[in-house]
Specification:
Strand content: 15-25%
Number of domains: 4
Number of strands: 20
CATH architecture of the largest domain: 4-Layer Sandwich
Helix content: 25-40%
Largest sheet: 6 strands, antiparallel
CATH superfamily of the largest domain: Aminohydrolase, N-terminal nucleophile (Ntn) domain
CATH class of the largest domain: Alpha Beta
Strand order of the largest sheet: 2-3-1-9-8-10
Distance between the termini: 31 Å
Shape: globular
Mean pLDDT: 87
Structural class: alpha+beta
CATH topology of the largest domain: Glutamine Phosphoribosylpyrophosphate, subunit 1, domain 1
Length: 632
């Protein structure tokens, strides 16, 4: 979680050092370990460093190998051994101990713009090539590391934060109305290239930005693979290959002596914790698990029980954060709670306190995020076979499914028949509390219908591809939004997601969906003997209830959404209709809108930008509770 910033004055004017330092000051919280600035005439880079790997102990940025090509990067490079071997083939040696930023710079010297095709890991970087007078920026495959940019009349700017770019006098703070509409409808931008600010763009995941002679060029360097084909004669080979790739993905994200694991009672995060624990135990390191639980709010929540089974088996300590006492929008007026863009912040205080717990253990945090989309089931594949008239193939796959699972459940027969008959499943309703004049001005209803149709109709159609569900889910714009939200913590920690590993996902998209991705069969087989059987065989279950609905519909002392929406009510939302929607949600708990709290979230964010204090919730709930598990 380092921070980067840069200015390239397209008119040739020298960079204002004071302005660059001011911009770097905004991003300084990302890197408390080192700070550096490099300026050469009309180009200036800044960097703040958080040391999270052994190789970074002597790292300094901005960095150059020859004084001509300079880099500033927030990066972790995976697969270092294979990359270094490629360098050796190209006559470059003695690179085993260098920092990751130098490996990226070496890759640029060898392959130029195509260096990103040889890189694995999480990265956002900018390179100034003085020989070619070219700026080259790139972001990792899934957008784990953020990178924003803006172009003014005379400059091209980039940074890890949007607020950093807003320090430049040429960047307007005017909002994008379409982004506001997206937030109210979906909780985040549907166009990955945009931000809440009209003048600030997001470099999309798996994209590179090249600026030569003042002309920017944007292109995609990687897409989710759809043509992979891996078939083994022995089922054990699939399991062994998966286990090896998952272990490599976790170990590549360690390279440190201490790590914190976000752990639920599910299989993905517990598998990550198990692999990390075994690896660090061999290397005299330390792992600690952290779990959010509900004691009274959701009385049927079993996360504590299942998480306890895992830590007892692994012999690692665990801390539990009890979510019940948190009030909705608690402590919203505190600076630590303020976000640079609108977010779902109803329980932001809980999230920040949880991050404080994690940061007390390590600057490196591992999650199990990504297992669900990468191993999504086969329903869309079954539907696609029927829609294309491949009846024979459909029957063969159905027979295989029955032979292994003794049932057609999960194969998608019902969905396939409904699709053939033109029977649509449930679709969410357009929120009637959006002001009609606002919606008409930006075509919001049409946008809603397009996005909902795209999501529920699974508009990924590849003939013969059995991973349509996984491809659909992995392509959703919510992932980069979620990564950026987690990345935006003011605490010096870096959150890493082993299941979002290019090597692992490439493998999962190339093996037969049936049987391996149905109910995560391959993952369950790989964890045999590693995780406790109640965890390994536990079916995928949702949270025991809806915490938001439980808070708002408490029988004696419910939380209350204050619908006195000032800015939002004047411009975007009809207050009376929104109040009716809240009451309906409290009565039946059915989510008919993307986010029932979106208008309040937006109001709080808008007021925080103007320095006002927004306290939209009154609650019966008390203070946070943290419980410590036994160190076993």
């Amino acid at each position: 979680m380092s921070g980067i910033v840069g200015i390239v004055n397209l008119d040739g004017a020298p960079v204002n050092r004071q302005l660059l330092q001011q911009m770097l000051g905004i991003v300084a919280y990302r890197g408390p370990d080192a700070r550096g600035i490099w300026i050469d005439g009309h180009v200036g880079f800044g960097h703040v460093l958080l040391r999270t790997t052994r190789e970074s102990l002597r790292e300094q940025q901005p960095r150059s190998l020859d004084g001509q090509v300079w880099i500033t990067a927030d990066a972790r490079v995976d697969g270092r051994g294979d990359l270094i071997q490629e360098f050796e083939y190209n006559g470059r040696s003695d690179l085993k101990a260098v920092a990751d930023v130098e490996l990226i710079l070496q890759a640029y010297h060898v392959w130029g713009e195509d260096c990103v095709k040889h890189l694995l890991g999480d990265f956002a970087f900018a390179i100034w090539d003085g020989r070619r007078r070219r700026l080259f920026c790139a972001r990792d495959h899934f957008g784990v590391k953020p990178l924003y940019y803006a172009q003014t009349a005379s400059s091209l700017l980039f940074a890890s934060d949007v607020d950093t770019l807003r320090q430049h006098p040429g960047v307007s703070s005017a909002l994008s109305e379409l982004a506001v509409g997206d937030f109210l409808l979906f909780g985040g931008n549907q166009d990955e290239s945009t931000t809440i600010y009209r003048d600030i763009r997001r470099l999309m995941p798996a994209h590179r930005l090249i600026v030569t002679r003042g002309t920017p060029r944007l292109d995609r360097y990687w897409t989710l693979p759809t043509g992979g084909y891996i078939r083994y004669a022995n089922d054990d080979d699939y399991v062994a290959h998966f286990r090896k790739l998952l272990r490599t993905a976790v170990e590549d994200r360690l390279r440190t002596d201490r790590v914190a694991c976000m752990m639920s009672g599910g299989m993905d995060s517990t598998a990550v914790a198990a692999i990390a624990s075994k690896y660090l135990c061999r290397n005299h390191g330390e792992v600690r698990a952290y779990t959010i639980i509900h004691d009274r709010l959701l009385p049927d929540d079993h996360e504590k029980y299942f998480a306890g089974l895992v830590v007892e088996t692994l012999g690692i300590p665990v801390d539990y954060l009890v979510a019940d006492p948190y009030r909705l929008f608690e402590r919203w007026d505190e600076p630590e709670m303020r976000s640079q863009q609108p977010v779902e912040a109803s329980t932001m205080a809980m999230w920040v306190d949880f991050l404080h717990l994690l940061a007390g253990q390590s600057s490196v945090v591992l999650t199990g995020l990504g297992g669900d989309p990468a191993m999504a089931g086969s329903c869309s594949y079954s539907v696609d076979l029927l829609r294309r008239g491949h009846i024979g193939r459909f029957l063969v796959e159905a027979a295989r499914h029955v032979r292994r699972f003794r049932s057609l459940k999960g194969f998608g027969l019902r969905s396939g028949l409904q699709g053939l008959l033109g029977q649509d499943d449930w679709r969410p309703e357009y929120p009637n509390w959006i002001r009609p004049e606002f919606a008409a001005r930006i075509g919001l209803r049409e946008r809603w219908e397009h996005c909902v149709r795209k999501f529920y109709n699974r508009e990924v159609t590849l003939d013969g591809c059995s991973h349509l569900d996984a491809l659909h889910l992995l392509r959703l714009p919510l992932w980069s939004e979620l990564f950026e939200l987690w990345y935006a913590s003011v605490l010096p920690i870096e959150i890493r997601h082993p299941f979002f590993d290019v090597r692992l996902i490439t493998f999962l998209l190339a093996i037969p969906t049936l049987p391996w991705c149905y109910r995560k069969t391959i993952h369950r087989e790989a964890m045999r003997g590693i995780l406790p059987e109640p965890i390994r065989t536990r079916p995928k279950v949702a949270l025991a209830g809806d915490p938001m609905h439980a808070r708002l519909s408490h029988p004696t002392k419910p939380d209350t959404l204050d619908t006195k929406l000032g800015i939002v009510g004047e411009n975007y939302v009809d207050r009376g209709t929104y109040q009716q929607a809240v009451e309906q949600y409290k009565a039946d708990g059915v989510v008919r809108y993307a986010m029932i709290t979106a208008p309040v979230n937006l109001e709080c964010w808008l007021q925080s930008r103007s320095g006002a204090v927004c306290v939209p919730i009154r609650s019966f709930l008390g203070q946070a509770t943290v419980t410590q598990g036994d160190c076993v």
